[in-house]
Design a protein that fits this description.
Structural class: alpha/beta
Strand order of the largest sheet: 5-4-3-6-7-9-8
Largest sheet: 7 strands, mixed
Order of helices and strands: HEEHHEHEHHEEHEEE
Helix content: 25-40%
Distance between the termini: 38 Å
Bound molecules: S-adenosylmethionine
Number of strands: 9
Length: 226
């Protein structure tokens, strides 16, 4: 799958629209997960292809977007890293809040294509300030940034087991870590300080509730990673 064909696939299976509750952000979104997931499996020839996370705005990311709108000073004029960027929702919200540069990282090639298209669809600043990384950031040390955003990344045990220690290392190095989550079970609650909560409307029918409470947390400093 080339970058061009991934972009064409995203455009074919989504429509560009404002995000409910965060209308200043426009994303290429889909309505139903299962037919799109099937199309991804067919296009890649991979029956184990990942769910098309990138075609939906997830509650953790929506909560971070709302939080950055209310508190732009968290990212304004700062370098930001969006972990598990999906559609690029948090990265775009960070640019709109005044971030100087944003790296949007996701392992999924369709996510990389969607982030690029969505960054462009949100004006010149998005296209200029967002750099897309299609790779697993946890294979390396945390990047040299001021803030890491982790919107709805802690949805699987094995992934959370890798992400949380990596975020601990980042925090120990002085990077601010902001986590957005709707209360998934792998959230390291004892390490987090709640900053805000928002009633958000997810765009995926995979979530069993139309509206969810998305919480925004800061990772505590002081805990030394092993
Ligand atoms: C539930 S989605 C959240 C997307 C977006 N942050 C939001 O809130 O709408 C989680 C994303 O994490 C990405 N992901 C999973 N494992 C990853 C890894 N090891 N490195 C980077 N991204 C990863 C998935 O591809 C997916 O796009």
């Amino acid at each position: 799958m080339t970058a061009d064909s991934a972009r064409a696939f995203v455009l074919r299976h989504t429509s560009l629209r404002p995000v409910t509750g965060l209308e200043e952000v426009r994303l290429h979104l889909a309505d139903e997960v299962l037919p799109l997931w099937h199309a991804v499996q067919t296009a890649t020839g991979d029956p184990d292809a990942a769910i098309p996370f990138w075609a939906f705005a997830w509650s953790g990311g929506l909560a971070i977007g709302r939080y950055l709108r209310d508190h732009p000073e968290v990212v304004a004029a700062r370098r930001v890293f969006d972990l598990g960027s999906g559609s690029g929702l948090c990265a775009i919200a960070a640019v709109q809040a005044g971030a100087s540069a944003v790296i949007a990282a996701d392992v999924d090639p369709f996510a990389a294509a969607a982030i690029e298209l969505n960054a462009r669809a949100n004006g010149r600043a998005g296209a200029r300030r967002i750099t897309v990384w299609q790779r697993d950031p946890m294979l390396d040390d945390p990047p040299d940034v001021d803030v890491i955003l982790a919107g709805d990344c802690l949805y699987e045990a094995t992934l959370a087991e890798r992400i949380v220690p990596w975020l601990d290392v980042a925090r120990a190095r002085g990077i601010d870590v902001i986590v957005g989550d709707p209360g998934r079970r792998y959230l390291p609650t004892s390490e987090l300080v709640e900053l805000a909560s928002y009633l958000v409307r997810t765009t995926t029918e995979l979530e069993n509730l139309d509206h969810k409470t998305g919480r925004v947390f800061a990772l505590r400093s002081g805990r030394r990673p092993a």
